[in-house]
Write a structure and sequence with these properties.
Length: 490
């Protein structure tokens, strides 16, 4: 059987101003995971439109499209194209799960929730000529027995971070803005792979660098501990995402760092307790953010801090305050987002009930546009403040100030290389990416990560200057965390 699998590009990617770097980070892992359920004799063509021109002339029997909110319109256009040509079209992913009726108009079968159980079921039905219109994942799900990801279908040279992997699904927490509750409806919403399988997957990945895309790699402490134990001595350098809470917990972070953790995406999201409560982010209430950063740095782990602007407690002062806090605490990279109510989330329901949604142009639900009426800001103030925060955080003055929170010269240089190199040389990276040489940038990333962790540090107090003065700018026991996106390199 001829099968075409596509990760459609978001609409923005067709603009001449499109900067490819963010979309050349990670390969289409979800589709490569699903491809493993196809038969060895099936002819699979997997394409990621963010990094290559799509071939749409051939007529495959089966077309599998992954739909994100911002790529929904492109995904539907492709689906319509293939259905006209007589192919059987499957649509799945986060946006399909949020809005099944919308997606169903463009598909022969739609898939709600993770596809690890439903896709193999569909394939059996399809081959028997009995495919159903809707497949919904429910019940006691698991990824303990899924086949290895079809890495052979990934064009590694097109990605800066070809070694991305996930060893869990979902997250143990229940934040109101997160896609999670809708996506995992009617069943288990946080589960992990077998440790041995996860380690075997790593063994299949060449080179040193690994990037875990799990929502919360530390979410199951027993699993994480066994995983880090198994990774010791592998010589890996890795990045991942975790919560403030998990960083503060004694023991686990140390084990992660010993096994090669060099940079962690931490969703601080907001410095306001009110925002934390209203977004049900209780697990981060009364957590000392500054202490979490100090612990990460003391273990040689760089911090990619995630921040969300526009929650109901935010006023016009939020942008400068947040940047100042991030810089003065020596955060290496920051990812800013405008609060975005995704359909299917508690936040969306709340905005809808309050009649605060401005439109449903999904292209603009990209965390860079304001799509709702903020409480204490105008939409214009929010967008301007968001862009200003990026500009200010990555101004040389602030990069230098952040770097100089380190006591050691080597670490100052590392901070400069990582933060400055990433943002300031972006146009250069874009040239490399357009020349389809993204993987050539990987050695530079690896040496920066390796260098940072190579220096002995005082694990109790950290090797940095204490930030107690800065910590007092914000009450130390306040924090929040919205794990959103743009992992890794800001
Ligand atoms: C890596 C990543 C990216 C990468 C690349 C994504 C890629 N190459 O696939 C980059 C950096 C480019 C990116 C960009 C963005 N991202 Co992003 N990203 C992620 C992240 C961290 C991991 C995705 C992943 O690989 N998961 C692991 C694989 C195994 O799971 P999966 O892809 O979901 O696939 C499974 C199921 O979804 C399902 N499935 C998927 N498709 C199909 C199709 C069929 C037919 C079937 C049967 C099943 C099925 O089966 C798969 C196996 O279970 C997720 C968070 C997360 N944990 O998922 C956010 C996430 C997907 N991103 C999100 C967002 C908002 C964005 C951006 C809009 C952010 C921005 N400000 O620019 C952009 C736009 C992306 C776009 N193209 O439209 C949101 C999506 C919200 C939504 N409702 O759509 C998420 C969920 C983060 C969040 N918590 O809010 N992202």
């Amino acid at each position: 059987m001829k099968v075409k699998m596509i990760l459609p590009a978001l609409t923005e990617a067709t603009s001449p101003f499109f900067r490819p770097i963010k979309y050349s980070l990670f390969p289409p892992l979800g589709l490569a995971t699903l491809a493993a359920h196809l038969a060895p004799e099936d002819e699979i063509d997997l394409q990621d439109e963010h990094v290559e021109k799509l071939e749409t002339e051939a007529c495959p029997a089966l077309v599998v499209l992954q739909v994100y909110i911002t790529s929904a319109s492109r995904a539907y256009a492709l689906a319509d194209h293939y259905r006209k040509r007589g192919a059987y079209v499957c649509l799945g992913g986060l946006h399909v799960t949020s809005l099944p009726q919308e997606a169903a108009q463009h598909a022969d079968s739609i898939f709600l929730g993770p596809g690890d159980d439903t896709f193999p079921q569909f394939l059996r039905d399809y081959r028997a000529g009995q495919a159903k219109k809707v497949y919904a994942s429910t019940g006691q799900r698991g990824i303990e027995h899924i086949p290895p990801v079809r890495r052979d279908l990934i064009k590694r040279h097109l990605y800066l971070v070809p070694n991305s992997l996930v060893v869990s699904r979902g997250c143990p927490h229940q934040c109101s803005f997160c896609y999670k509750n809708a996506f995992f409806e009617g069943g288990t919403s946080f589960y992990v792979q077998r440790v041995d399988d996860a380690l075997a997957e790593m063994e299949r990945l060449p080179g040193r660098h690994l990037y875990f895309l799990d929502d919360h790699l530390f979410g199951n402490a027993k699993f994480a501990e066994a995983l880090f134990e198994g990774m010791r001595g592998m010589g890996r350098l890795w990045q991942a995402a975790g919560t403030v809470q998990s960083v503060l917990k004694p023991g686990l972070l140390e084990k992660a760092a010993e096994s090669g953790l060099r940079s962690l995406f931490v969703g601080f999201e907001t410095l306001s307790e009110e925002n934390l409560r209203s977004s049900l982010k209780y697990q981060n209430l009364h957590k000392d953010y500054a202490a979490a950063i100090r612990r990460l740095h003391a273990n040689g782990v760089m911090v990619n801090g995630s921040f969300v602007f526009g929650m109901d407690g935010d006023d016009a002062s939020v942008f400068d305050r947040t940047v100042e806090w991030a810089v003065s605490n020596g955060i290496e990279t920051a990812t800013f987002h405008i609060l975005t109510p995704y359909p299917g989330t508690g936040l969306y329901q709340q905005m809808q009930a309050q009649n605060r949604l401005l439109h449903n142009n999904w292209d603009l639900y990209d965390t860079r546009h304001v799509v709702y009426r903020p409480a204490k800001l105008t939409a214009e103030e929010l967008e301007t403040g968001y862009w200003r925060a990026y500009r200010d955080f990555y101004a040389w003055k602030n990069i230098l100030q952040g770097a100089w929170t380190n006591a050691r010269w080597s670490e100052r240089m590392r901070h400069l290389a990582y933060a400055g190199g990433w943002k300031k040389f972006e146009p250069l990276w874009d040239v490399v990416i357009r020349a389809q040489r993204a993987t050539n940038l990987l050695p530079a990333l690896e040496s920066i990560l390796a260098g940072f962790g190579a220096h002995p540090v005082n694990k109790e107090s950290g090797c940095r200057r204490a930030n107690s003065d800065q910590a007092s700018i914000f009450p130390p026991r306040i924090g929040a965390h919205q794990e959103k996106d743009s992992r890794g390199l800001a």
